[in-house]
Amino acid sequence: MSIIEKAPAKINLGLDIAGKRADGYHDLSMLMVSVDLNDYITVSEAEGSSIIIESNSLRMPLNEKNDVYKAALLLKKRCNVDAGVKITVEKRIPICAGLGGGSTDAAATLRALNKFWGLHLPDETLLDLGFTIGSDVPYCIGGGCALVSGKGEIVEPLEVSLSAWVVLVKPDFGVSTPSVFRDISPSISRVDISALREAAEAGDYQQLLCHMGNSLEDITIARKPFIQKVKDRLLKCGADTALMTGSGPTVFALCQSEKKADRLVNSMKGFCKTVYKVRML
Ligand code: C5P
């Protein structure tokens, strides 16, 4: 028997840094939304009590450093599961991109094994376990549109009816999240997440565009000016807005017509190899 779980990527419609905490982490406020670019996690039985990871990606460690492995081990220990498990990760979401690929895989592993082993743990427990793996994992347990705060552990799902085409442009380099967070200064630009939330809940696309923003964008662009070029080009080609997601480097553009999204994809392809046209989920 095996179980397949879909692991969608996320984008940040808003990311605000409210301040630095005593533990060195930051208080965040983020409006996140899932998009239909997915990894797939398949879990099946393995001999003994081993955790075996397989993947089509050559860029991912297949050992205990992998967040998928960490998720399986956590659940095994927490629920005293003796059985072995093979986890196959079909990677489609680019790695180190700001699209939450590692976090969504870890969350999907928790969901899949919760079913596979018949554990019946509630989402809140999966969320707590996920938080010990990474700050974006709690959000990824439920996905969709949500307001995320604290260090990432406070997740409030939102009822919104947003619909837009999303064009994702991933430059050919990765960005280290801890190094971006290290460069945060008191003069960082702020984002009004409450206004953004209001716009999202009202389904007011124009207001949404007005309030979108990412406090980390200036920091990553200062190191990788190419990201600004991607944004400029997307806007020049007719995007309604263009914003970096997470700590970067992926930039996403929003537009309401599919024709426009297709035009954006075509004009970005000569500029960057990795371009996707997706929908918000
Ligand atoms: O939790 P995760 O491993 O995803 O976080 C990556 C890095 O992002 C942390 O090492 C930290 O530097 C930074 N971070 C932060 N405050 C948060 C979440 C992440 O400073 N709330």
TrEMBL record:
Domain GHMP kinase C-terminal as annotated: residue spans: 197-272
Domain GHMP kinase N-terminal intervals: 67-144
GO biological processes: terpenoid biosynthetic process
Domain of life of the organism encoding this protein: Bacteria
EC numbers for this chain: 2.7.1.148
Residues reported in the UniProt entry to bind ATP: P94, I95, C96, A97, G98, L99, G100, G101, G102, S103, T104
Signal peptide limits: none
Active-site annotation: K10, D136
Gene3D superfamilies cross-referenced by the UniProt entry: 3.30.230.10, GHMP kinase, C-terminal domain
GO function terms (MF aspect): 4-(cytidine 5'-diphospho)-2-C-methyl-D-erythritol kinase activity; ATP binding
InterPro entries, per database record: GHMP_kinase_C_dom, GHMP_kinase_C_sf, GHMP_kinase_N_dom, IspE, Ribosomal_Su5_D2-typ_SF, Ribsml_uS5_D2-typ_fold_subgr
Primary role: Catalyzes the phosphorylation of the position 2 hydroxy group of 4-diphosphocytidyl-2C-methyl-D-erythritol.
Protein name per UniProt: Putative 4-diphosphocytidyl-2-C-methyl-D-erythritol kinase
Species: Streptococcus chenjunshii
Species classification: Bacteria, Bacillati, Bacillota, Bacilli, Lactobacillales
